[in-house]
C-alpha cells in the first residue's frame, strides 16, 4: 500500500463513518466512548477521596486517552489536504489547524504536555487541567444535534455579536447613570462605575440577587427601566437562535427530501434501462426464434 492510498484510507476511517464502512464506524464509537469516559474521569477526579484512592488509575487512564487523542489529532492534521482538496497542502494544514474543532482537540490535550514543556506553576496547571472538559466538544463530529448547534452559531454569529455589543453598551450606560445617581447617597453599594457593573449585569439579566440595590427614588426608577430593557436584551439572542434553528431544520428536511427524490429517480431510471434491455433481449430472442423451425431447428425461408 503506497503513501497516497494509505492516507486516503486513514482519512475515510477517521472521518465520520458511513454505514457501509465498519472500520470507520468502530473508530467513531471508540472515540465517543473514550471522550465520555474522559469527561467522567475528570469530574470524578475532583472528589478528594476518589483522587487520593484512585490517583494512579486516573493517571493511567489519562495517559491512554491522551495517547489516543494525540494520535487522532496528528492523523487528522496529516489528512487535512484530503479534507480541503481545493487548497494547496500548506494552506489545508493551516486551515485545519485553525479550525474550531482542531483547536478544541489541541487545547484538550495540551494540559498533559505542559509540565514537559517546563511549565511549573501549579495554579496554572490546575486551571489548564479543567480544559480537559473541552473534550466533550469533540462529540460535535458525531452528533447531528451538536452539528446543528454549531451551524446555527456559525451562520447567526454576526447577529449574536451585534446583540452582545448592544448589551455591553447598555451595561456601560446603565452602570454609569446609576453610579452618578446613587454614589453620593450609597457609596458602599456603588463605589465606582466598575463595581456598579455588577448591579447592571444582575439587573439586565433579570436575575435580581438583591445584594446591591438603589435607595433613592431616581435610582429605583432607573433600576426598573433597566430591568424592563433587560427582558428585551435577553429575548434578542433567544429569538435569533430560535429562528436559526427553525431555518436549519427546514433546510435539512428539504435537503433530505431532495436526496431521497434523487435516489428514487436514479433507481427508477436504472429500472427503466434494465426493463428496456430485457425487452430488447426478448425481442431479439423472438426474432431469432422466428428464423428457425421449432421442430427440426432448420432455418426457415425468408418471406418477401
Automatic annotation (TrEMBL):
The keyword DNA damage does not apply. It is a multi-pass membrane protein. InterPro entries: Ion_trans_dom, VG_K_chnl, Volt_channel_dom_sf. Residues 246-288 form a coiled coil. One of its GO terms (molecular function) is voltage-gated potassium channel activity. GO terms for biological process: action potential. Its main location: membrane. The chain crosses the membrane at residues 25-44, 56-75, 96-118, 160-181, 193-209, 221-246. This is Kef-type K+ ransport system, predicted NAD-binding component.
Amino acid at each position: 500500500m503506497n503513501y497516497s492510498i494509505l492516507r486516503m484510507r486513514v482519512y475515510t476511517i477517521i472521518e465520520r463513518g458511513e454505514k457501509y464502512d465498519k472500520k470507520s464506524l468502530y473508530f467513531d464509537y471508540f472515540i465517543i466512548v473514550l471522550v465520555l469516559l474522559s469527561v467522567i474521569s475528570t469530574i470524578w477526579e475532583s472528589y478528594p477521596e476518589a483522587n487520593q484512592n484512585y490517583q494512579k488509575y486516573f493517571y493511567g487512564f489519562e495517559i491512554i486517552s491522551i495517547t489516543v487523542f494525540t494520535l487522532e489529532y496528528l492523523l487528522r492534521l496529516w489528512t487535512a489536504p484530503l479534507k480541503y482538496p481545493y487548497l494547496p497542502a500548506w494552506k489545508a494544514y493551516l486551515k485545519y489547524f485553525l479550525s474550531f474543532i482542531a483547536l478544541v482537540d489541541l487545547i484538550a490535550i495540551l494540559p498533559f504536555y505542559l509540565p514537559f514543556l517546563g511549565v511549573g506553576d501549579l495554579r496554572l496547571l490546575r486551571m489548564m487541567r479543567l480544559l480537559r472538559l473541552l473534550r466533550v466538544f469533540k462529540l460535535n463530529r458525531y452528533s447531528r444535534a451538536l452539528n446543528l448547534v454549531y451551524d446555527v452559531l456559525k451562520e447567526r454569529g454576526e447577529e449574536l455579536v451585534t446583540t452582545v455589543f448592544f448589551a455591553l453598551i447598555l451595561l456601560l450606560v446603565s452602570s454609569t447613570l446609576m453610579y452618578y445617581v446613587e454614589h453620593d447617597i450609597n457609596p458602599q453599594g456603588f463605589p465606582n462605575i466598575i463595581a456598579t457593573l455588577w448591579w447592571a449585569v444582575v439587573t439586565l439579566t433579570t436575575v435580581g440577587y438583591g445584594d446591591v440595590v438603589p435607595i433613592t427614588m431616581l435610582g429605583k426608577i432607573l433600576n426598573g427601566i433597566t430591568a424592563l430593557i433587560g427582558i428585551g436584551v435577553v429575548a434578542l439572542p433567544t429569538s435569533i437562535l430560535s429562528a436559526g434553528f427553525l431555518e436549519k431544520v427546514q433546510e435539512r428536511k428539504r435537503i433530505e427530501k431532495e436526496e431521497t427524490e434523487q435516489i428514487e429517480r436514479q433507481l427508477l431510471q436504472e429500472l427503466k434501462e434494465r426493463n428496456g434491455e430485457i425487452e430488447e433481449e426478448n425481442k431479439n430472442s423472438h426474432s431469432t426464434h422466428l428464423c428457425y423451425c421449432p421442430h427440426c431447428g432448420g432455418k426457415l425461408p425468408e418471406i418477401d
